[in-house]
Amino acid sequence: MADEVLLEKHYVEVCPGCKVDMRKLSNSGFPMKELFSMRLVVLCNALPISSLYPFLYFMIRDFHVAKRDEDIGYYAGYVGAALMLGRVFTSVFWGVIADRYGRKPVIIFGIVSV
Fold first, then answer.
1. Can you give the pLDDT at residue 94?
2. Which segments constitute the Major facilitator superfamily (MFS) profile domain (predicted)?
3. 3-class DSSP state for residue 28?
4. What residues have CB less than 8 Å from 41, skipping those under 6 apart?
5. Per-residue pLDDT tens digits for 6-41
6. How many angstroms separate the CA atoms of 37 and 56, rounded?
7. Residue-by-residue DSSP string for 58-101
8. Residue 60: CB partners within 8 Å, gap ≥ 6?
9. Angle at 39 between CA 34 and CA 44, to 5 degrees
10. C-alpha distances out from residue 72 to 18, 50, 56, 69, 103, Å
């Protein structure tokens, strides 16, 4: 009786935490698949922001938005602020959608839509 384990682990198939525990027990190596997918998500998140600014000066100049060349920086600030304001206002919406339907469909939709 003293040799019996008091707290035996019991795994349920539909339990997400149990799946994580079983994966940790089966894989002792470095999680390359998870890191690759995380790097892909971070790249898809940063790429639209960082690729906009090198072309912003030429876009504002060629669309004749600014009347003088000195005003191009002023309007470029508006474009950058509008991008971030759009992220602020839609982050609450996407948070609600992620709570309702799960984070994976929202992340996949975000990657595909970029």
1. 92
2. 34-114
3. coil
4. 107, 110, 111
5. 677 778 888 888 888 888 877 777 878 888 988 988
6. 30
7. HHHHHTT--SSGGGHHHHHHHHHHHHHHHHHHHHHHHHHHHHHH
8. 66, 72, 75, 76, 79
9. 130
10. 56, 18, 9, 6, 39
Mean pLDDT of the chain: 86
Question: Terminus-to-terminus CA distance in the chain, angstroms?
Answer: 61
Residue 45, pLDDT > 90, answer: no
Could you tell me if 107 and 41 are in contact, meaning their C-beta atoms sit under 8 angstroms apart? Answer: yes
| Token code pair at residue 70 | 């000195």
pLDDT band at 2 (very low <50, low <70, confident <90, very high): low
Pairwise CA distance, residues 74 & 30, whole Å: 47
* Helix, strand, or coil (residue 3): coil
**Burial annotation 15-27 (CB, 10 A radius, 16+ → b, else e):** eeeeeeeeeeeee
